[in-house]
Amino acid sequence: MMYENIALSRIDRENNTYRISTEMPGDRLKDSIRNVGLMHPPIVINHPISADFVIVAGFRRIAACRELGWSEIPARILPPETEKSDCIKLAITDNSLQRPLNLIETSRALHYLSEFYQDHRQLARESSLLGLPENPSLIGKIRKLCLLPQPLQNAILSDVIPLAVASELDDMPPDTALAYTKLFEILKPSLNKQREILTLVREIAHREDMSLLNVLESDAVEEILCDKESDRNHKTREIRRYLKQRRFPAITRAEQSFEACVTSLNLGKDMKLIPPENFEGTVYALHLHFRNISELDALLARLENIIRNPSAKKIFEPEI
Amino acid sequence: MRDISKIYIDRQIADTPAAISFSRLNIPCEVVDDAGSVFKAVASADDPVQKGKEILFLTRNKGAFVRKCPGTRHYTCCGYKILHIGTFCVMDCSYCILQSYFHPPVLQYFVNHQEMLAELDSLFAEKEISRIGTGEFTDSLIWEYFTNLSELLVPKFAGQSRAVLELKTKTVAVGALKHLRHNRKTVMAWSLNTEQVIHTEERNTSPLSARLSAAATCESWGYPLAFHFDPMMLYEGCENDYMQVVEQLFSRVSAKNIVWISLGTFRFMPDLKAIVSKRFPGSKIVYGEFITGLDGKMRYFKPLRIALYAKMAARIREFAPDTPIYFCMEDDEVWQKSLGFIPSDYGGLAKILDDSAVKHCGLEI
Q: I need a surface site. Which of A24, B147, B206, B308 has the fewest CB within 10 A?
């Protein structure tokens, strides 16, 4: 490997063969280079067919130098016969040993490596040596993230979409994955709520013989998302409620009917009627809150009226 | 059976007549020292359920042949007994609970028949009536093409009057039953479902019309019959479809020869959902309106079950007012709202079914 000053104009700025980093150079990097110079020269290799150079490591440093108006930089030039796999390892090491890689950067690194290590165990071993994950299952989930549509990668980078959800979206057609991305960007729901939405939409699509996209882009969902009066927590609640109602129509009707009956019983804050779980059992519970005998006595008097209320009968003998 | 690619034979039973008869089939055989290698071959496959249907393991039943049907205290059980002749099945129903019941699912056939017959003798010596069947952990008749099990069991039950054997199937493999002395102590039973469910969810099973023809044939040979609408599936138009099955049933067999008819809607342990989704990606059955039942199984929302049961029971009663209709694992509320009574009104479900067995099969208490 030799060190040489090379013209920035000879470095191919379009070639991302070895790019790991997802970020552009920040002010701190530019300030540092401006003040103390380029402490760690980037690594480049001759372009296979032109006289230009391809960046192996140092994309952000080179971009920063360009932004600072430099015309040439010191660089370490790899011998032209250097194997691609060695270039990739240099690129990964240069990044992963300096700072923790984000998920997309890790994905790029694993994706590049997997070109040379098709065997899962070999890939895991090499990955571990380069400071990347060594668990084959985790590698499998991360490896293809860098191939996802860019908005989805952005959502992963901004922590809107967790890895578990990203790998599920990875199995979907791009337009569907993008529709989920848009939804989760707006609502920013927790992992559990994202999973719940994914499951409900998938099962509705199965039940109704339609695509996931059709469910996601239904008028009702759009209407909730476009409501300017409600915040994202309210929208999340409404979307979940809508999807649940569509997935479990009879159960939702029964729950709503029960709630309506309970409301018309006017139980007040000191009585609570609890139905059997899922209406599967037959035992209802009534919780009474009181501080003394006279309060209990008053509750019992109200209870007698409640028992005679037609809504009480409707609770125990619902229409099928 | 046509898809079995290999037979493993437990060395302990390799020289029994049953094992020898299997080894004469044109299927590669391997004698093994223990079950571990067989279970490993199944468990390590990409689709252990499918693999389990392609490998047959001949071995001995190391546990009891006669077992109580597992029930739970939350729902009414019929007091059935299981005759444990083997495990798993070569047919491939999407809803089959055996896919997640056995770990891994291995097609096993138990050949230590002398021990089985000894246990049956003990059962026959009991003072109470027994209803016992082979169709819980496997299909009763898939073994007919390769074994003489029916020739062993049917005459065995014919020679006593305390127990009735139920052979429950989705096949039409009844040929061997024609000349057997049954003395009406063997009830021939079929699982029935709608044409749509059979077509979409029951791979490698016989069509509905063929099952009913086989039932009619068995009736002509003097066998009492039973039918199980289980698992019934809820889908758009299912009620009409099930009514049509009821009509077809009674156009082929006589109500007076039916010992009992059971109804049960689809229920499953939660583990089964992932298996069905993976093995039957086009199937919708796990996307019904299920809740978690009191026994931890997923069940259709109760009012939906009751609505279908009530319609089915009403239609069946139009054809067979005296035939007991019963539910497998439902509670008193479902009984009352669907059938208009609860089992305890008549001494309990076991007694209702025992009485019918006495009446149709000539059992003596």
A: A24
Query: For domain B60-361, is the CATH number 3.80.30.30?
Result: yes
Neighbours of A196 (CB within 10 A): 16
The answer to whether the beta carbons of residues B136 and B103 sit under 8 Å apart is: no
Residue B261 structure tokens: 């008819």
Whole-angstrom Cα distance, residue A219 to residue A234?
18
Asked if A120 and A147 touch (Cβ cutoff 8 Å), the reply is: no
Interchain CB contacts (distance < 8 Å): A and B: 43
Q: Which of A206, A277, A282 shows the shortest C-beta gap to B333?
A: A282
The DSSP bridge pattern shows strands B6-10 and B29-32 to be parallel
Fold of A2-146: 3.90.1530
Per-residue pLDDT for A35 more than 60? yes
Q: Predicted ipTM?
A: 0.89
Strand pairing category for B325-327 and B258-265: parallel
| Domain(s) of CATH 3.80.30.30: residues in chain B | 60-361
**Tally of CB atoms within 10 A around A313:** 12
Q: Is A207 on the interface with B (CB under 8 A)?
A: yes
Across the interface, of A206, A278, A318, the residue whose CB is closest to B284 is A206
Among the partner-chain residues B287, B291, B332, the one whose CB lies closest to the CB of A280 is B291
Rounded CA separation B347/B334 (Å)? 17
Q: Say how far residue A140 (Cα) sits from the centre of its chain.
A: 16
Share of chain A above pLDDT 90, in %: 83
Helix axes A249-265, A232-247, angle to 10 degrees: 110
Residue B1 has pLDDT above 70, yes or no: no
Dihedral of alpha carbons A102, A107, A108, A112, sign: positive
Amino acid code (one letter) for A104: I
pLDDT, tens digit, 9 for 90 and up, residues B242-290: 999 999 999 999 999 999 999 999 999 999 999 999 999 999 999 999 9
Please report how the helices A174-187 and A219-226 are oriented relative to each other, as an axis angle in degrees rounded to 10: 30
Token pair 């339609």 in the structure block, residue = A210
Instruction: Please name the amino acid found at residue A254.
Output: A
Task: List the one residue out of B355, B335, B354 whose CA is nearest residue B345.
Answer: B335
Q: Are B309 and B261 in contact (CB under 8 A)?
A: no
Tokens in use for A99?
Answer: 């700072």
The answer to whether B132 and B82 have CB atoms below 8 angstroms apart is yes
Partner residues linked to B131 by β-bridges: B164
Cα A128 to Cα A81, A125, B259, B288: the distances in Å are 26, 5, 67, 45
Provide, as residue numbers in chain A, all residues whose Cβ is less than 8 Å from the Cβ of B332.
282
Which DSSP helix (H) or strand (E) runs through B361?
helix B349-361
A63 — pLDDT class (breaks 50, 70, 90): very high
Single-letter code of the amino acid located at B359: K
Query: Can you tell me the distance from the alpha carbon of B14 to that of B32, in angstroms, rounded to the nearest whole number?
Result: 9
| Residue B209 main-chain phi, psi, to 5 deg | -60, -35
Could you give the angle at the alpha carbon of A62 between the alpha carbons of A58 and A65, nearest 5°? 140
A278–B303 CB contact, under 8 Å: no
Structural domain spans, chain A:
2-146, 148-247, 264-316
| A319, closest residue in chain B (CA to CA) | B303
